[in-house]
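Lecture 7 notes: from sequence to structure.
We start with the chain below.
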Amino acid sequence: MSTKPLAAAGRLVPLLRAGLIAGIVVAAVAYPVVAVTGIGAKATAHAVESKTRLLATALPAETSYLYAPDGKTVLTMFFEEYRQYTKLSDISPNMQQAIVAAEDNRFYQHHGVDPKGVARAFVANARSSGVSQGASTLTMQYVRMALRDSATTPKEVQEATAQTPIRKVKEMRMAVDLEKELSKEEVLERYLNSAYFGHRAYGIYAASEIFFSKTPKELTPVEAATLAGLVKSPSQYDPASSDQKEATARRNYVLDNMTRLGYLSPDSVAAAKTEPIRLRLTYPPNDCASVPEKWNSWGFLCDYLKNWWSAQPAFGDNRLERLDKLRRGGYRIVLSMDPKIQAAAEENVGTKGNTGSPFANGIVVSEPGTGRVKAMAVNRTYSLQVNENPLSSNPEAGPNVRANYPNTVAPLMGGGDLPGYQAGSTFKMFPMLAALDAGMTLNTTFNAPHSYRSEIYDGWQPSNASGAMSGMQTMWSGFGKSVNTYFVWLEEQVGAEKAVRLAEQLGLRWRTDVDRDHASPAKANKWGAFTLGVSDATPLEMANAYAAIAADGRYCEAMPVAAIYNRDGTPATFKTPGGIEREVAKPRCRQVVSADAARAATDAARCPTGDTPAKGGCGGWSTADSVRGTVGRPVAGKTGTTDSTRSAWFVGYTPELAAASFISDPDNPFNAVGDGQSQIPIAAVSNTLRDALKGKPVRDFIPPSDRIVG
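Predicted C-alpha cells for the same chain:
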C-alpha cells in the first residue's frame, strides 16, 4: 500500500491554520486510498453501505395540506420545512442547468466524487491557509442533506454535519455508492427537492413559489440563476433583503457559468446581467391560525383536526411523533365538514356579530352512522391575538388574565384538553337507554314525587324543577318534562354504573378529578347525580353520543376528516389490533346498544321537542315544544340546564344529523347565564337543523317494536 498521499497530507497540514481545514484536506487525500484499497473496519463499511441503500429510497420532509371538503381548496398547510416534492420533469431545464452551474460544473462527468475538484480544492486551501474552495459535489451535498433530514436523534444530526475527516470520507464513499443506485437525473431531482433556499423555502417548489409566485416549470434563466445562487449561502445572497448587491453578483456568477457550460449564449447573458432582480414574494400559510379570514370559524375545526391527529396511533407512538408526522409527512387531508351546514351553524350561533359576550354559544353537528363532524361553530373569532380581550370574569384567574373573547383558539367545543361544561338533563338519555337495553320498557311507570329520597344513594334527596312534574310518569313523559325524581328512580333500577359505562361507550370521557373519581368502578354505582348531568361534557361528545342513537345504537368515533392521502396519493392506513389494515379516514363504528333500544329512546326523545312519538304519549307538555315546528320534520332531543342555570344545553337530532349546542362562560362556570338565555341553544340547534336540511327529503324515525313499548 502506498503511503505517499498520506505523507503529502502530513507535510501540508502544518500550513493550515485551523483543525477544520486539516480535517477536510486529510479526508480529501485519504479518500482515494480508502476507495481503492477498502481500508477501514468491515463493520463501518457495512454501516455505510446500509445507510446508502436507505438514502436511495428516503424522501425529504414534505408539507401537509389541509383541504376544504371539495378536495381542491387549500385552507392551510402544516410544515416545519415548507416543501412539496416535484418531479424533475416538472422542473424547468433552466433550473436544472443553473444548479449545476452554481454548485457542480462537472456533475455529469464524475461518479459522485470529483477527483479534479478535490485536488483543486486541496491546493487552493493549502495556499490560502483557509477554505477558499470546497470539493463537495451535488451528490455529496445531497448525501449530507439526506443524512441530516433522516436523522432521528441529535447525535445523528451532529454526525451528519460535523466538520471531521471521518464524516467527509463517509460522505464521499456514500456519494460514490449512491450513484451506483441512482441515475444523475434522480440525484439532481432529489437535490433540488432537498436544498434550502432561504425564507423557509425547502426545495425548488417552495423556492419558486415564495420568491417568484410561480411553479418550478415556469422559471426563466434569470430566475433560475437567482435561486441557484442562494444555495451556497441563503442569508448572504437573499434577494428579498433591502440591498440586492450580493444577490445580483451571485446571480451573475451563475449566469456566467451557464454560458461557459454552453447552456446560454453570451449575448443573452450579457443582457440578463443588466436586469434587476424582480421578486413576487409569497408567504405560505402555516397551521390553523392561517385559515383564510372568510372561513375564520373553520379554524376551530382545523384545531380539532390537530388534536384528533395527535391521538391517532397510526401516526406515531406519542403526541410529539404524530404532530411531527403531520408537519413533515406530506399528507393531503380533506375536512369532513359540510359548507352548507357550517354556514347554517355559524349563522345561528352568531359567529359574525355576537363575539363580544363572556358567554360562549357553540354548536357541533355530527353525522349519524359515520361520526363525521359536519359543522363546528362558536361565537368567537379564531385568533391568537388575545392581548386586547377584556379581563377574565373569573376572580380567581389573576389580575392580568385575559378572557377567551372575542378572540381565542381554545377548543371550546371539544376535542382538546378542556373539561367542557356541565350538561344537565341531557344526561338523562344514558340511564334511559341503559334501562331500555337491559329489557325495561317505555311504559315503565313510576309515581314521581316532587322530592325523592334515595336510600341507594345514601339518603340523597333531589327534587324536580316544578311541582307540575309530580305524578305518574313513563319514559315518554318523564323525558319530555325532564322529571328528575323519575330518572333518579330509573337509574336506581338499572344501576348507575351501567349508565356511566354506557356513556363511556358512547364516547364520553371524564376530564376532572371529581368526575374520574365518581366514575371509578368502586364508586360509579353510587353516582346518583350522574343522571342530572353534574359531569362535564363537550358539545362534540354529546352530538356524537346522540348521533349513535339516531343510527339505531351504532356508535361511530368522532371524525374531522373525509379523506387522508399519503404523499404518493394512496389512502393513509393503519393496522387494527387484530392485524387488519384499514384506512385512517374510514368511519370506525360499533354497535353499543340494540337497534330496538335506540329506537325506543328516540321515541321518548321526540317528547321534549313537541314532536309526536310513534307509540306513546308525552303527558301534555314538554321542555322545548317549539323545536318540531321550527325544524319542520321529525326531530328528537333533550334540553339541559344546571343549578342556577350556569349553563344551558340542547341536543337534537333527525335521522340525518345530530347537533349539540351550549351556552356557558368557559372562563368562570359560576357566572350563570340565567334562565333568560336558556332558549339560545334550543334555537341554535333548531334553526341549524332546519337550514341544513332545507330541500332534503323528509325522513321519519323507525318506530320501536311493541315488545319494548310494553
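Points to note: Residues 1-43, 129-133 have pLDDT under 50 and may be disordered. The two ends are 98 Å apart (CA to CA).
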